[in-house]
Amino acid sequence: LLTPLLPHDHHRNRGMRTRLGCLSHKSDSYNDFTAILPDKPNRALKRLSTEEATRWADSFDVLLSHKYGLAAFRAFLKTEFSEENLEFWLACEDFKKTRSAAKLASKAQRIFEEFIDVQAPREVNIDFQTRELTRRNMQEPSLSCFDQAQGKVHSLMEKDSYPRFLRSKIYTDLLSQTQRRLS
């Protein structure tokens, strides 16, 4: 099934190999979420109210702004093999807080090479024009050099992954867990 990798294919296939490796134990379940919680799962879930978890359905930005909402969404994206979109969005949020001009260019370069460049290890799904615009922005990196790419990835997640997340077993299980605690 798997063809042997030639040395020059190594970089391109690294992502593919790790994805195939993950397929064997992927499941879209509540346990995937608890496995990557920022705190100890039980403590975290005691703190998470049904009301909070329900609010994640109000808007995508509400979900992104909540620590556990973000963790649950990330767990869901992992099951769909599209977590690079969220990782890129988070990297951009972090990048915009860069205060040092010296760090700006190297941080920008790292994000570009990891997420934007063609065949980047975690290449995000953006159109050619946005990719080229971002490439041009890299000549003089500024805090806004990823704005358009970040915006595209945000709306892609909002239109595509977010509605599926709200219907996913991860989210519905999580809601029922918080409700069960109340009864």
TrEMBL record:
Subcellular location: Cell membrane; Cell projection, Dendrite; Nucleus; Perikaryon
Membrane disposition: Peripheral membrane protein
Keyword Disulfide bond: no
InterPro entries: RGS, RGS_RGS8, RGS_sf, RGS_subdom1/3, RGS_subdomain_2
Source organism, top-level taxon: Eukaryota
Record keywords, A-Z: Cell membrane, Cell projection, Membrane, Nucleus, Signal transduction inhibitor
GO biological process, one term: negative regulation of signal transduction
Keyword Cell membrane on entry: yes
Family matches, as CDD domains: RGS_RGS8
Residue ranges constituting the RGS domain according to the UniProt record: 59-175
GO CC terms, sorted: dendrite; nucleus; perikaryon; plasma membrane
Main location (coarse class): membrane
PROSITE patterns named among the record's database cross-references: RGS (PS50132)
Pfam family, one: RGS
Name of the protein this chain belongs to: Regulator of G-protein signaling 8
Organism whose genome encodes this protein: Baryphthengus martii (Rufous motmot)
Origin organism lineage: Eukaryota, Metazoa, Chordata, Craniata, Vertebrata
Gene: Rgs8
